[in-house]
Design a protein that fits this description.
Elements: H1 26-49, H2 56-81, H3 89-132, H4 138-156, E1 162-163, H5 172-178, E2 180-181, E3 184-185, H6 186-204, H7 206-216, H8 218-223, H9 228-254, E4 256-257, H10 265-275, H11 287-306, H12 311-334, H13 340-355
Antiparallel strand pairs: 1-4, 2-3
């Protein structure tokens, strides 16, 4: 599901011979399937590390836990492919969760769903407006809004966290996070639906191709008539929408929300997107890789918890995974061109012989 979309200027000659597909290289193969292979290997080894890992209850727990992270990561994949990122998703998740529970208290399930989606989209539009209308750099804009969103969530919960009453345990709202369909948790089903929709947008729509083209070369995209304002506004709004959907799967599982919810969540999201093969330089990414990386991190966290590893050490592992992902991203970029790995080995061998 790698995206290497190229837009041609309007009126350009569409005839001529069709270009052959690029030859597979180590970088391209790793970009799409590398993390999937690592995930399969970890799943194969997991029974040796944690004997109870492959039980139905534990697998359902892993899939349920991975949903909210995976849904936001789908939107973040678009952002990073576009050459930007959103550091405010942790604050968005906290604020949207508070708004969702407030909506449920005021009007039940339908109002809760509407509040989640509307608040998430609103947060995304604010970020998009700061970046496009006020020309604030995305790093500064989203980092600042991270604190703003969390601050607003703290204000709304200054008398205590928003919680779901225990007498609502059988409500349709709570079942979003607890129900299984044919043994598969509903949050994971929602995650699958989000990735299917994201794939369609990315591969089958002009907007999706423009997102990738702008991340690959902003100058060329502008020459082809791509509106930077419209594309960036779409990307940040999409991230906000994904946060709104993710909050529904998150808050119906934990039953509570306040300003401190999921502190450091943005680190986890960016980690899985980069680990999944999306380049921080923009223009290249894979939803398959992001999806596999989400499951990889979820499985890794479950194994660490089952082995009694403390939360502090889990953060160390997550930070190490992020650094590894960035190193892999650099190596993938270095060896992306056909024959680049072979040329690097030959150059190194020549240097060694020359120094002897």
């Amino acid at each position: 599901m790698t995206s290497d979309t190229v837009l041609r200027p309007s009126g350009a000659d569409q005839g001529g011979p069709r270009r052959s597909r690029p030859r597979p290289t180590l970088g391209r193969l790793w970009e799409t399937w590398g993390i999937t292979v690592v995930l399969i290997a970890l799943l194969a080894l997991s029974p040796l590390i944690a004997p109870d890992f492959l039980t139905q209850a534990n697998l359902q727990s892993v899939l349920r836990e991975s949903a909210y992270l995976g849904i936001v990561a789908a939107g973040m994949t678009f952002a990073i492919m576009n050459g930007t990122f959103d550091l405010s998703v942790g604050g968005q998740l906290a604020l949207v969760s508070v708004a969702t529970l407030a909506g449920f208290s005021a009007g039940g399930t339908l109002l809760a769903v509407a509040a989640a989606v509307a608040t998430g989209v609103g947060c995304g539009l604010v970020n998009g407006a700061l970046v496009t209308a006020l020309r604030v750099p995305p790093f500064v804009a989203t980092l600042g809004m991270l604190f703003v969103f969390r601050g607003i969530a703290y204000i709304f919960t200054q008398d205590g966290p928003k919680t779901l009453p225990y007498d609502q345990a059988d409500s349709s709202f709570v079942k979003i996070g607890s129900l299984n369909l044919a043994g598969i948790p509903v949050p994971f089903v929602i995650m699958l639906a989000v990735y299917a929709a994201a794939w369609v947008v990315l591969r089958r729509t002009t907007t999706g191709r423009q997102v990738v083209a702008f991340g690959s070369s902003p100058e060329a995209a502008r020459f082809c008539g791509v509106s930077a304002t419209r594309v960036r506004l779409f990307v940040f709004t999409l991230v906000g929408l994904c946060v709104g959907i993710a909050a529904l799967t998150y808050v119906t599982r934990v039953w509570t929300a306040d300003g401190s919810a999921q502190d450091g969540f943005e680190l986890s999201v960016i980690t899985v997107v980069v680990l999944g093969g999306t380049s921080l330089k923009g223009g290249k990414g894979t939803l398959i890789g992001t999806f596999s990386a989400v499951l990889l991190v979820a499985v890794l966290n479950d194994i660490l918890v089952s082995q009694g590893v403390g939360a502090s050490y889990q953060r160390i592992v997550l930070g190490t995974v992020l650094i590894t992902a960035l190193a892999i991203d650099g190596l993938r970029t270095r060896f992306a061109a056909p024959g680049s790995f072979r040329r690097a080995v030959l150059r190194r061998s020549t240097e060694v012989r020359s120094s002897s």
